[in-house]
Every structure is written in C-alpha cells, then in structure tokens.
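Next comes this protein:
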Amino acid sequence: MAQRSKSSKAWLHEHVNDHYVHMAKKDGYRARAAYKLLEINEKDKIIKPGTVLADLGSAPGSWSQVAAKLAGNTGKVFALDILPMEPIAGVDFIQGDFRESTVLTEFEQLLAGRPLDLVICDMAPNMAGNAVIDQTRSIYLCELALDFAAEHLKPGGTFLVKVFQGSGFQEFQAAMKSVFAAVATRKPEASRNRSNEIYLLGRNKR
C-alpha cells in the first residue's frame, strides 16, 4: 500500500481532529464558521440584544444562528443566499442570487425600510480552482456586499465581511475606508492558518 503524503496526512488529521467541527456538533451549530463570528463579537461587540442585521451569503446558517441568539427577541436577522437554508427561529430568509437586482429588490421589500445596525457577510464564490478567477469573483462579491451595506446601514452602522487576501484586496480595503470612519482587520482563531481569508470590520458608517 502506498504511503500517504505528508500533506494528505495533514489534511486528514485537520478534518478528523478539527476542534471547531466537534464543538459545532456539540453546540448545535451548522458549521464551524459560527466560532469565527462568536470570537469577533466577543472582541468587538457588534451584535447585542436588539440589533437589526442582514446576513449575506448565509447558508448553511451558522452565522444566522449566532446572530439570532445574540440579537434576541428584540433584534431581527434577515438572511440571503443562493443556496437553500433550513429555517432558523427569528431569521427571515430569502433564497436567491445576490448578483441579481430582482433578488435584492425582494430583499429590500423584506426589510420594509428598516435601517440596519449591521451587515455581516461570510460569502465565498464557487471556487473554479483558478486563483486569478477565484480572487476576482471573491472581490466582486465583497464589492456587492459593501454597496448593499452603504445603502442600507444606518449612519454609524457596522459592516463585517470576509475577504481573501490577494489581487484587489487593498483597493477593496480603501473602498471600505471611504464608507466607514474606521476599518480594522480580524483573523479569528477559528479561521484556519493556511487560509488567506481575513475579515474586515468597518465601523461608524459615514
């Protein structure tokens, strides 16, 4: 039998022994990503009881689960994804493609003119395996999310978005700085070290 390569062994070890995967199962979260948002919120207190927020690219729903729990009965979570998502108490969900104006219009109707305190976005494109194409698609989704946040956040509102470092990252960070008074980077422990994902946190929408 052929010996497994070191990288193959490392991959298997990471997935079988992933601390956050086991925690997610135990705690009832749909994905390990829940702990990224929990860790950021522990530091930055972006979701509190009464927070009204939108979760863009929400499926399978772990961020919406966290947000609904933290925002409580006095808050509200609106979620959007191209993929289906099982219902979550306290979350209004629309399934559709974020890039289509008809879907955004439907989402805006769901908001019914309510200004948002917070927009969170953990979206990633379907990866093609081509680094240049994947990065371009990723930045495009981030730009769409920023446009949505700029339009729907109340003055002083907050935006948290996952960005992959690479081509277009600095330009996107600069675009965020034109909308928000402060922009910080966050790399939660639950984010795998080998991943080039990072989170940008925009505070105090102008």
User: Anything to note?
Assistant: The beta strands are 52-56, 76-81, 91-95, 116-121, 153-164, 180-186, 197-205. The chain has seven helices and seven strands.
